[in-house]
Design brief:
This protein is an alpha+beta fold. It has 18 helices and 17 strands. The structure holds a DNA duplex (20 and 20 nucleotides).
DNA sequence: CTCACAATACCCTGTAAGCT
DNA sequence: AGCTTACAGGGTATTGTGAG
């Protein structure tokens, strides 16, 4: 709504009869009533959720990963507080990024004590003009994530220091900037915002690769989280992700670990065994290939059906897949070219981890063997969308009505296909009927 | 067809608190 | 005590769009 007011103030015409504006206004009003009611509630609330209230539209909009595209939170204003920025620390991420974080004078904001907060990157720190020693405004974004909003410049004493990442990680003995974990060289690729540790074998990265592999979205090995993966790595029980599946040969050493009794060890080993036949998409995600997240991993699994097939795919082959461009393709190729990675995959296979998946047989799909032909304009679908959904369920689409055509789908202003279908006695569906069919079978 | 820009999808990171 | 979860907001990559 504010955006629209802003546009109006710039002289743009906004049609006051536009239904959408009414809808937005309605949401805004509803939100305001809750902002007022908030304090009187006998429970905690952090905002309202606006939802599309038609199941059909919800289905069309779908999800991105776990998040629905048909519902969005509209949060109450965040609670803020101020405190002192004592220092800026650096942590090393799974991909080798050097991540600056704020070390704060502990402060209570919205009922919890905040000591640290992410600062993202050097450019962002500069943009916000955050300096070490500053009094800074802190808020909990979405009532949860601590965030440094910016400095209170009126409180400056002149002793505040600008933050320079390369100075922070400067190693006097080596006389150059160095990774705070392994001491390797640090670089910032042209045009990028993050600095990286150049050492792929950096313990920080190795440990977090293990953590990522075991994580819920990937192989989902319950029991192996940040702490255990670090311990197992430090003790040398696990050097890379494949070693996880050979832990069972080292039971005695596991039992010697602190806080690991017989039950913990057997729970962990059970969880490891269970993870051996996760869907292929999970395995691809778990490998930790750069730029391959949940969605792309899933896509690659559908496309290749086995890790070997993916490993052998050419750049062109990869790029021909929708949503995969040169960067992602190169990232995949580079990963499988690495000798160490090939070795890991070999050992994963030997230990019994499932690395392929039967392609879903087209014959097994609900619309298998049916051919659909579309004519006229559809209301709620684009034609391409409709065709995709039919194909996703195993149906075929044709461009002209023949004796093999199962259904003719008729939108508004149908063409001559309708006449032909009538003369052939082909079954005719209108849009609503098609949608029902798709929803029923899906 | 190419280029530039906008929109969208995807990926990554970190904190506190609830859960086991 | 450790693991998991909820969550925001940063960046990068890809796709879509319109003009020439």
């Amino acid at each position: 709504w504010e955006t629209l007011e802003y546009l109006k103030s710039l002289g743009f015409k906004v049609n006051p009869n536009n239904r959408r504006l009414d809808d937005i206004k309605q949401v805004e009003d509803y939100y305001q009533t809750w902002v007022e009611k908030r304090e009187k509630l006998h429970y905690e609330a952090d905002g309202i959720v606006v939802k599309v209230n038609q199941l059909e539209l919800q289905q069309r909009l779908g999800d991105i990963g776990r998040e629905p595209r048909w519902a969005i939170a509209y949060k109450f204003p965040a609670v803020q507080g101020t405190t002192r920025l004592i220092d800026i620390g650096i942590s090393v991420g799974r991909t080798g990024t050097l991540n600056p974080y704020a070390i704060l004078e502990p402060v209570s904001v919205g009922g919890v004590t905040i000591r640290q907060a992410a600062l993202h990157n050097e450019d962002d720190i500069r943009r916000k003009d955050i300096r070490i020693g500053d009094t800074v405004i802190i808020q909990r974004a979405g009532e949860v994530i601590p965030a440094v909003v910016g400095p209170v410049t009126s409180q400056r004493t002149g002793k505040e220091k600008e933050f320079k990442l390369l100075e922070k990680v400067f190693d006097k003995e080596k006389n150059r900037p160095a990774c705070p974990v392994c001491g390797s060289e640090v670089s910032r690729p042209e045009g990028e915002v993050m600095y990286y540790c150049s050492n792929a074998a950096c313990p920080a990265q190795a440990q977090q690769r293990i953590e990522h592999f075991a994580s819920r979205g990937a192989m989902d090995i319950r029991g192996i989280g940040e702490n255990l993966s670090a311990t197992l790595y430090e003790k040398g029980l696990i050097k890379d992700i494949a070693d996880i599946y050979y832990l069972k040969d080292h039971k005695e050493q596991l039992l010697e670990l602190e806080k690991m009794g017989g039950k913990s060890v057997s729970n962990m080993l059970d969880a490891i065994e269970k993870s051996k036949d996760r869907p292929l998409g999970r395995v691809i995600l778990a490998l930790g290939i750069r730029h391959i997240g949940e969605e792309t991993a899933e896509l690659l699994a559908r496309e290749f059906h086995s890790l070997d097939a993916l490993a052998e795919a050419s750049r062109e082959e990869l790029m021909s897949i929708e949503t995969i461009g040169p960067k992602i393709a190169d990232s995949i190729i580079a990963f499988f070219r690495q000798e160490t990675n090939r070795d890991i995959i070999k050992r994963l296979r030997e230990s019994g981890v499932k690395l392929e998946e039967k392609p879903v047989k087209a014959e097994a799909l609900p619309l298998a063997g049916m051919e659909f032909v579309l004519t006229g304009t559809l209301e709620a679908f684009s034609r391409k969308e409709a065709e995709e959904r039919i194909k996703a369920l195993g149906g075929a689409t044709g461009s002209s009505v023949t004796r093999k055509t199962t259904y003719l789908v008729v939108g508004t202003d149908p063409g001559s296909k309708l006449d032909r279908a009538r003369s052939l006695g082909t079954e005719i569906l209108n849009e609503a009927e098609l949608r029902n069919l798709l929803n029923r079978k899906a």
